[in-house]
């Protein structure tokens, strides 16, 4: 068994170790609570998920490509029709 100043230092070291462990536990608990609050806040904002956004973006790109192709086709058909009408 330790006596005198060594025992005091040992007890103090043990106390500081316990305090550090308690502080880490409180930090983890605070982070968990903050994360839960942030998740609750973001879900209440009705934000779109990234996967949904990417899917809609891809659909818009495809629709734009189809629209461009159809515009070119209509322009070609109008030019052919104008040629036929000018021959009359």
UniProtKB/TrEMBL annotation:
- Pfam families with a match to the protein in the record: BMFP
Coiled coil regions, renumbered to chain:
60-87
Report the superkingdom from the record.
Answer: Bacteria
Q: Which UniProt keywords apply?
A: Coiled coil
Keyword Coiled coil applies: yes
Q: What is this protein called?
A: Pyrroline-5-carboxylate reductase
